[in-house]
Amino acid sequence: MKKIIICLIAVLSFTSCTVSYINTSELRENYEKKVHNTRFLGRVLFKKDIKKKDVYDNIDVYLNENEIAKDFEVVAYGKYTPFVIPLLRPERPRLEKNLLWKAAQKSRKLDADATIIDDKNSFRIIKYKQDECEK
C-alpha cells in the first residue's frame, strides 16, 4: 500500500496542470511590480535597476496586436516555459509574475522595439517599420 501511495504522489508531482486563463490586469500589475521592486543587493552588486529601467523605458509590451498603431515586422518568436513541479511550484503564478518581464528582456536582448504576448507561453518580438521619409 505504501508503494502505491508513493508512486501516486510521484506521478502527480510530475504531471503538468493546465492553466485555463490568465487575467491581463494581473499580468500588467505584476509586470509593473517586478520592474519597480529591486532588492538592495541586486541594486548595489549587479546594478539591476539600470537594466530594468532600460528594458522598461525602451520596450513596449502589448497583449494584442490591434493595440499597435505602427507597422511592424516580427523579428523572432519566443516561448516562456518555467520549470514546474505542480505540487511544489505551480505554473500559473510563474506565468503571471514573469511572462511579460521575460518577453521584454528577450526583446531588449535582440535590440527590438516591442513584444506581443500571443498566448499563455508564447510571444512575438517585433521591430517597428520606419517610414520612407524618416530614413
Question: Would you give an account of this structure?
Answer:
By secondary structure, the protein is of the alpha+beta class. The protein has one domain. It is 47% helix and 16% strand. A 4-stranded mixed β-sheet has the order 1-3-4-2. Helix 2 crosses helix 5. The radius of gyration is 19 Å and the shape is globular.
Please describe the topology of this protein.
Elements (H helix, E strand, L loop, with lengths): L1 H13 L9 H13 L3 H7 L1 H11 L1 E3 L9 E8 L11 H19 L4 E4 L4 E7 L7
Parallel strand pairs: 1-3
Antiparallel strand pairs: 2-4, 3-4
Helix pairs in contact: 2-5
In total, how many domains does the architecture comprise?
A: 1
H/E series: HHHHEEHEE
Number of strands: 4
Q: What share of residues are in beta strands? A: 15-25%
Termini gap: 73 Å
Main-sheet strand order equals 1-3-4-2
Mean pLDDT across all amino acids: 82
Q: How is the biggest beta sheet arranged?
A: 4 strands, mixed
